[in-house]
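ok so for the tutorial part 2 we go from a plain amino acid sequence to predicted C-alpha coordinates. step 1 is just haveing the sequence, like this:
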Amino acid sequence: MKRTRIVHVLHRMGAGGTELALRKIVAGLDPDRFEHIICTIAPLPEAEMTGDVRFISLQRDGKKTGSLVSDLSRIFLRERPDIVHSRNWGAVEAVLAARLARVPRIIHSEHGRDIHTMHGDPLRRRVFRRFCYGLADEVFAVSNELREHYAKQTGVVPTRINVISNGVDVARFRPDAAARARMRAFLSATDQHIVLGTIGRLDPVKDHTMLLLAAEQILNAGVSLKVVIVGNGSERQKLQSQIESSLALRSSAILAGESGKPEEWLNALDVFALPSLSEGMSNTILEAMATGLPSVVTAVGANADLVEHGHTGFVVNPRDVNALASRVLMLVSNSSLRSDFGARARQKAASSFSLDRMLEDYSRLYTVCTFHKRPAETGLRRA
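step 2 — the prediction. this is what the C-alpha coordinates look like for a chain of 383 residues:
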Protein backbone atom coordinates (compact mmCIF):
# COMPACT_ATOMS: atom_id res chain seq x y z
CA MET A 1 0.00 0.00 0.00
CA LYS A 2 1.29 3.45 -0.92
CA ARG A 3 2.33 5.50 2.08
CA THR A 4 0.68 8.86 2.72
CA ARG A 5 3.30 11.55 2.14
CA ILE A 6 2.96 14.45 4.57
CA VAL A 7 4.96 17.68 4.36
CA HIS A 8 4.98 19.36 7.77
CA VAL A 9 5.76 23.08 7.53
CA LEU A 10 6.83 25.21 10.49
CA HIS A 11 9.03 28.23 11.03
CA ARG A 12 11.95 26.47 12.68
CA MET A 13 13.01 23.36 14.56
CA GLY A 14 14.03 23.97 18.15
CA ALA A 15 13.16 23.11 21.73
CA GLY A 16 9.60 24.45 21.80
CA GLY A 17 6.36 22.59 22.33
CA THR A 18 5.33 22.68 18.66
CA GLU A 19 8.56 21.00 17.61
CA LEU A 20 8.35 18.47 20.45
CA ALA A 21 4.84 17.44 19.39
CA LEU A 22 5.98 17.09 15.78
CA ARG A 23 8.88 14.85 16.80
CA LYS A 24 6.45 12.65 18.73
CA ILE A 25 4.18 12.37 15.69
CA VAL A 26 7.00 11.50 13.29
CA ALA A 27 8.42 8.92 15.70
CA GLY A 28 5.08 7.46 16.77
CA LEU A 29 2.97 7.07 13.63
CA ASP A 30 3.11 3.84 11.62
CA PRO A 31 6.08 4.15 9.20
CA ASP A 32 4.41 1.67 6.84
CA ARG A 33 1.49 4.06 6.43
CA PHE A 34 3.00 7.53 6.68
CA GLU A 35 6.04 9.23 5.13
CA HIS A 36 7.19 12.49 6.71
CA ILE A 37 9.01 15.49 5.29
CA ILE A 38 9.70 18.44 7.59
CA CYS A 39 10.05 21.80 5.86
CA THR A 40 11.32 24.77 7.87
CA ILE A 41 11.43 28.42 6.94
CA ALA A 42 14.52 29.14 9.06
CA PRO A 43 17.83 27.26 8.71
CA LEU A 44 17.95 23.81 10.28
CA PRO A 45 20.14 23.05 13.30
CA GLU A 46 22.79 20.47 12.48
CA ALA A 47 21.32 18.10 15.05
CA GLU A 48 18.14 17.86 13.00
CA MET A 49 19.89 16.62 9.86
CA THR A 50 19.72 12.95 10.83
CA GLY A 51 17.10 10.21 11.09
CA ASP A 52 14.52 8.63 8.78
CA VAL A 53 12.53 11.81 8.27
CA ARG A 54 13.60 14.04 5.39
CA PHE A 55 14.27 17.73 6.00
CA ILE A 56 13.95 20.70 3.68
CA SER A 57 14.75 24.30 4.62
CA LEU A 58 14.12 27.60 2.87
CA GLN A 59 17.12 28.96 4.80
CA ARG A 60 15.37 32.24 5.55
CA ASP A 61 17.10 33.89 8.48
CA GLY A 62 16.02 36.93 10.46
CA LYS A 63 12.61 38.29 11.39
CA LYS A 64 11.60 39.40 7.88
CA THR A 65 11.41 36.40 5.60
CA GLY A 66 9.61 38.02 2.68
CA SER A 67 6.93 36.16 0.75
CA LEU A 68 7.25 32.39 1.05
CA VAL A 69 4.45 31.33 -1.26
CA SER A 70 6.40 30.84 -4.49
CA ASP A 71 9.25 28.93 -2.85
CA LEU A 72 6.89 26.69 -0.93
CA SER A 73 4.77 26.07 -4.03
CA ARG A 74 7.86 24.87 -5.91
CA ILE A 75 8.70 22.47 -3.08
CA PHE A 76 5.16 21.06 -3.04
CA LEU A 77 5.15 20.64 -6.85
CA ARG A 78 8.45 18.77 -6.62
CA GLU A 79 7.60 16.59 -3.62
CA ARG A 80 3.95 15.92 -4.60
CA PRO A 81 2.67 15.38 -1.04
CA ASP A 82 -0.74 13.93 -0.26
CA ILE A 83 -1.06 16.32 2.69
CA VAL A 84 0.56 19.61 3.66
CA HIS A 85 0.29 20.39 7.37
CA SER A 86 1.37 23.90 8.38
CA ARG A 87 1.76 25.07 11.97
CA ASN A 88 1.31 28.52 13.48
CA TRP A 89 1.61 31.98 11.96
CA GLY A 90 5.21 31.51 10.86
CA ALA A 91 4.16 28.86 8.32
CA VAL A 92 0.60 29.90 7.45
CA GLU A 93 1.62 30.92 3.90
CA ALA A 94 2.07 27.20 3.22
CA VAL A 95 -1.73 26.94 3.07
CA LEU A 96 -1.92 29.29 0.09
CA ALA A 97 1.17 27.73 -1.50
CA ALA A 98 -0.33 24.25 -1.15
CA ARG A 99 -3.60 25.35 -2.71
CA LEU A 100 -1.74 26.91 -5.67
CA ALA A 101 0.29 23.69 -6.06
CA ARG A 102 -2.94 21.65 -6.03
CA VAL A 103 -1.98 19.58 -2.99
CA PRO A 104 -4.91 17.18 -2.38
CA ARG A 105 -5.43 18.01 1.32
CA ILE A 106 -4.30 20.93 3.46
CA ILE A 107 -4.23 21.13 7.26
CA HIS A 108 -3.30 24.11 9.43
CA SER A 109 -2.90 24.00 13.21
CA GLU A 110 -2.33 26.55 15.97
CA HIS A 111 -0.08 25.58 18.87
CA GLY A 112 0.29 28.83 20.79
CA ARG A 113 0.99 32.52 20.44
CA ASP A 114 4.09 34.59 21.03
CA ILE A 115 4.59 37.31 23.61
CA HIS A 116 4.18 40.11 21.05
CA THR A 117 0.66 39.06 19.99
CA MET A 118 -0.66 37.22 23.04
CA HIS A 119 -3.44 39.80 23.54
CA GLY A 120 -4.40 39.99 19.87
CA ASP A 121 -3.06 40.05 16.33
CA PRO A 122 -2.64 43.07 14.05
CA LEU A 123 -5.45 43.49 11.52
CA ARG A 124 -3.38 42.20 8.57
CA ARG A 125 -2.63 38.98 10.45
CA ARG A 126 -6.26 38.47 11.37
CA VAL A 127 -7.39 38.97 7.79
CA PHE A 128 -4.74 36.72 6.24
CA ARG A 129 -5.22 34.03 8.87
CA ARG A 130 -8.97 33.99 8.18
CA PHE A 131 -8.26 33.76 4.44
CA CYS A 132 -5.94 30.78 4.97
CA TYR A 133 -8.40 29.05 7.31
CA GLY A 134 -10.90 29.24 4.48
CA LEU A 135 -8.45 27.57 2.07
CA ALA A 136 -7.54 24.73 4.44
CA ASP A 137 -9.47 21.47 4.57
CA GLU A 138 -8.87 21.11 8.30
CA VAL A 139 -7.98 23.69 10.97
CA PHE A 140 -7.31 22.74 14.57
CA ALA A 141 -5.79 24.07 17.78
CA VAL A 142 -4.20 22.21 20.68
CA SER A 143 -6.61 23.50 23.33
CA ASN A 144 -10.13 24.84 23.72
CA GLU A 145 -8.77 28.17 24.92
CA LEU A 146 -6.59 28.54 21.83
CA ARG A 147 -9.49 27.58 19.57
CA GLU A 148 -11.67 30.27 21.12
CA HIS A 149 -8.85 32.81 20.83
CA TYR A 150 -8.29 32.27 17.11
CA ALA A 151 -11.99 31.98 16.34
CA LYS A 152 -12.44 35.41 17.93
CA GLN A 153 -9.38 36.84 16.18
CA THR A 154 -10.45 35.66 12.73
CA GLY A 155 -14.21 35.88 13.06
CA VAL A 156 -14.75 32.23 12.14
CA VAL A 157 -17.22 30.10 14.08
CA PRO A 158 -15.44 28.03 16.77
CA THR A 159 -16.85 24.78 15.36
CA ARG A 160 -14.76 25.37 12.23
CA ILE A 161 -11.67 24.73 14.40
CA ASN A 162 -11.08 21.24 15.73
CA VAL A 163 -9.12 20.49 18.93
CA ILE A 164 -6.35 17.89 19.15
CA SER A 165 -4.61 18.21 22.49
CA ASN A 166 -0.99 17.31 23.16
CA GLY A 167 -0.06 13.99 24.72
CA VAL A 168 2.60 12.77 27.12
CA ASP A 169 4.46 9.47 27.28
CA VAL A 170 3.40 8.26 30.73
CA ALA A 171 5.87 5.36 30.57
CA ARG A 172 8.80 7.73 30.14
CA PHE A 173 7.50 10.43 32.50
CA ARG A 174 6.69 8.64 35.75
CA PRO A 175 7.80 8.64 39.38
CA ASP A 176 11.28 7.06 39.52
CA ALA A 177 12.90 6.66 42.95
CA ALA A 178 16.35 5.90 41.54
CA ALA A 179 16.35 8.99 39.30
CA ARG A 180 15.10 11.10 42.20
CA ALA A 181 17.91 9.97 44.49
CA ARG A 182 20.52 10.47 41.77
CA MET A 183 19.42 13.98 40.77
CA ARG A 184 18.89 15.21 44.32
CA ALA A 185 22.38 14.02 45.22
CA PHE A 186 23.68 16.04 42.27
CA LEU A 187 21.84 19.08 43.67
CA SER A 188 23.05 18.40 47.23
CA ALA A 189 19.40 18.32 48.24
CA THR A 190 18.69 16.45 51.47
CA ASP A 191 15.34 15.08 52.64
CA GLN A 192 14.85 18.38 54.45
CA HIS A 193 15.07 20.38 51.22
CA ILE A 194 12.11 21.19 49.00
CA VAL A 195 13.12 21.35 45.35
CA LEU A 196 11.10 23.77 43.24
CA GLY A 197 11.67 23.83 39.52
CA THR A 198 10.59 24.27 35.95
CA ILE A 199 11.61 23.18 32.46
CA GLY A 200 11.44 25.25 29.29
CA ARG A 201 13.26 27.62 27.02
CA LEU A 202 14.63 30.74 28.72
CA ASP A 203 12.36 33.20 26.94
CA PRO A 204 10.61 36.34 28.26
CA VAL A 205 7.21 34.71 27.72
CA LYS A 206 8.06 32.06 30.33
CA ASP A 207 8.69 34.77 32.98
CA HIS A 208 11.34 32.91 34.95
CA THR A 209 12.08 36.21 36.67
CA MET A 210 8.78 35.83 38.55
CA LEU A 211 9.73 32.32 39.64
CA LEU A 212 13.04 33.53 41.06
CA LEU A 213 11.35 36.44 42.88
CA ALA A 214 8.85 34.05 44.44
CA ALA A 215 11.63 31.65 45.40
CA GLU A 216 13.50 34.52 47.04
CA GLN A 217 10.44 35.25 49.20
CA ILE A 218 10.19 31.61 50.22
CA LEU A 219 13.89 31.40 51.06
CA ASN A 220 13.67 34.58 53.12
CA ALA A 221 10.81 32.95 55.07
CA GLY A 222 13.32 30.37 56.28
CA VAL A 223 12.40 27.44 54.01
CA SER A 224 15.15 25.03 52.96
CA LEU A 225 14.55 25.43 49.23
CA LYS A 226 16.47 24.51 46.10
CA VAL A 227 15.42 26.10 42.80
CA VAL A 228 16.14 24.49 39.43
CA ILE A 229 15.47 25.99 36.00
CA VAL A 230 16.17 23.56 33.15
CA GLY A 231 16.50 24.96 29.64
CA ASN A 232 18.40 27.48 27.60
CA GLY A 233 17.65 30.65 25.69
CA SER A 234 17.98 34.39 25.34
CA GLU A 235 17.19 35.15 29.00
CA ARG A 236 20.00 33.07 30.47
CA GLN A 237 22.39 35.93 31.24
CA LYS A 238 19.62 38.08 32.71
CA LEU A 239 18.50 35.26 34.99
CA GLN A 240 22.05 34.45 36.02
CA SER A 241 22.57 38.09 36.99
CA GLN A 242 19.34 38.00 39.02
CA ILE A 243 20.58 34.93 40.90
CA GLU A 244 24.03 36.37 41.56
CA SER A 245 22.61 39.67 42.85
CA SER A 246 20.49 37.90 45.49
CA LEU A 247 22.14 36.57 48.65
CA ALA A 248 19.26 34.10 49.12
CA LEU A 249 19.27 32.77 45.55
CA ARG A 250 23.03 32.66 45.08
CA SER A 251 23.48 29.44 47.00
CA SER A 252 20.08 27.92 46.26
CA ALA A 253 19.22 28.44 42.58
CA ILE A 254 20.72 26.76 39.53
CA LEU A 255 20.33 27.26 35.80
CA ALA A 256 20.83 23.68 34.67
CA GLY A 257 20.94 24.32 30.92
CA GLU A 258 19.42 22.15 28.20
CA SER A 259 18.80 18.51 29.00
CA GLY A 260 17.97 15.47 26.90
CA LYS A 261 16.51 13.78 29.97
CA PRO A 262 13.84 16.10 31.40
CA GLU A 263 12.22 13.10 33.11
CA GLU A 264 15.23 12.84 35.44
CA TRP A 265 15.10 16.50 36.39
CA LEU A 266 11.36 16.29 37.04
CA ASN A 267 11.93 13.41 39.44
CA ALA A 268 14.24 15.63 41.46
CA LEU A 269 11.42 18.11 42.12
CA ASP A 270 8.85 18.34 44.88
CA VAL A 271 6.87 21.15 43.23
CA PHE A 272 6.69 22.16 39.56
CA ALA A 273 6.00 25.78 38.60
CA LEU A 274 5.23 27.47 35.29
CA PRO A 275 4.76 31.26 35.59
CA SER A 276 4.27 31.89 31.84
CA LEU A 277 2.69 35.04 30.42
CA SER A 278 1.27 33.06 27.51
CA GLU A 279 0.90 29.38 26.59
CA GLY A 280 -0.81 27.16 24.07
CA MET A 281 -0.91 23.74 25.69
CA SER A 282 2.19 23.19 27.79
CA ASN A 283 4.00 19.90 27.25
CA THR A 284 6.06 20.48 30.39
CA ILE A 285 2.95 20.70 32.56
CA LEU A 286 1.82 17.36 31.12
CA GLU A 287 5.25 15.87 31.81
CA ALA A 288 5.21 17.16 35.39
CA MET A 289 1.70 15.75 35.91
CA ALA A 290 2.76 12.35 34.53
CA THR A 291 5.73 12.39 36.91
CA GLY A 292 3.32 12.79 39.81
CA LEU A 293 4.12 16.38 40.71
CA PRO A 294 1.83 19.07 42.09
CA SER A 295 2.04 22.24 39.99
CA VAL A 296 1.61 25.96 40.48
CA VAL A 297 0.92 27.64 37.13
CA THR A 298 -0.42 30.89 35.75
CA ALA A 299 -3.93 31.26 34.34
CA VAL A 300 -2.93 31.49 30.68
CA GLY A 301 -3.63 29.26 27.69
CA ALA A 302 -4.70 25.74 28.60
CA ASN A 303 -2.89 25.78 31.96
CA ALA A 304 -6.11 25.90 33.98
CA ASP A 305 -7.56 23.02 31.93
CA LEU A 306 -4.55 20.87 32.80
CA VAL A 307 -3.99 21.88 36.44
CA GLU A 308 -7.23 21.69 38.43
CA HIS A 309 -7.04 24.40 41.06
CA GLY A 310 -7.15 22.89 44.53
CA HIS A 311 -7.18 19.34 43.16
CA THR A 312 -3.92 18.71 41.29
CA GLY A 313 -2.21 22.03 41.94
CA PHE A 314 -2.86 25.77 42.01
CA VAL A 315 -3.51 28.40 39.36
CA VAL A 316 -2.47 32.02 39.94
CA ASN A 317 -2.60 35.20 37.89
CA PRO A 318 0.37 36.09 35.68
CA ARG A 319 3.02 38.30 37.30
CA ASP A 320 1.50 37.87 40.77
CA VAL A 321 4.67 37.02 42.67
CA ASN A 322 3.00 37.01 46.07
CA ALA A 323 0.32 34.54 44.95
CA LEU A 324 2.91 32.23 43.40
CA ALA A 325 5.03 32.29 46.55
CA SER A 326 1.98 31.75 48.78
CA ARG A 327 0.76 28.70 46.84
CA VAL A 328 4.20 27.14 46.71
CA LEU A 329 4.50 27.67 50.48
CA MET A 330 1.20 25.84 50.99
CA LEU A 331 2.65 22.84 49.17
CA VAL A 332 6.02 23.16 50.89
CA SER A 333 4.42 22.98 54.32
CA ASN A 334 2.12 20.01 53.61
CA SER A 335 3.67 16.79 52.32
CA SER A 336 0.28 15.01 52.26
CA LEU A 337 -1.13 17.72 50.02
CA ARG A 338 1.83 17.39 47.65
CA SER A 339 1.36 13.63 47.53
CA ASP A 340 -2.41 13.80 46.95
CA PHE A 341 -2.14 16.48 44.25
CA GLY A 342 0.66 14.58 42.52
CA ALA A 343 -1.22 11.28 42.44
CA ARG A 344 -4.31 12.93 40.98
CA ALA A 345 -2.18 14.76 38.42
CA ARG A 346 -0.61 11.54 37.16
CA GLN A 347 -4.00 9.84 36.94
CA LYS A 348 -5.37 12.73 34.87
CA ALA A 349 -2.35 12.72 32.53
CA ALA A 350 -2.70 8.98 31.95
CA SER A 351 -6.46 8.98 31.43
CA SER A 352 -6.92 12.17 29.38
CA PHE A 353 -3.61 13.19 27.82
CA SER A 354 -1.69 10.05 26.91
CA LEU A 355 0.68 9.96 23.95
CA ASP A 356 -1.25 7.01 22.52
CA ARG A 357 -4.43 9.08 22.44
CA MET A 358 -2.65 11.94 20.66
CA LEU A 359 -1.12 9.61 18.06
CA GLU A 360 -4.50 7.98 17.46
CA ASP A 361 -6.05 11.41 16.80
CA TYR A 362 -3.32 12.39 14.33
CA SER A 363 -3.44 9.01 12.61
CA ARG A 364 -7.20 9.34 12.16
CA LEU A 365 -6.85 12.90 10.87
CA TYR A 366 -4.22 12.00 8.26
CA THR A 367 -6.02 8.81 7.24
CA VAL A 368 -9.34 10.54 6.67
CA CYS A 369 -7.67 13.36 4.75
CA THR A 370 -5.91 10.80 2.55
CA PHE A 371 -9.28 9.48 1.43
CA HIS A 372 -10.47 13.02 0.64
CA LYS A 373 -13.45 13.11 2.94
CA ARG A 374 -14.85 16.47 3.85
CA PRO A 375 -13.82 17.91 7.24
CA ALA A 376 -17.29 17.34 8.67
CA GLU A 377 -16.87 13.61 8.04
CA THR A 378 -13.52 13.14 9.73
CA GLY A 379 -14.91 11.72 12.95
CA LEU A 380 -12.43 13.76 14.99
CA ARG A 381 -13.61 14.96 18.36
CA ARG A 382 -14.71 18.56 18.46
CA ALA A 383 -14.82 20.05 21.94
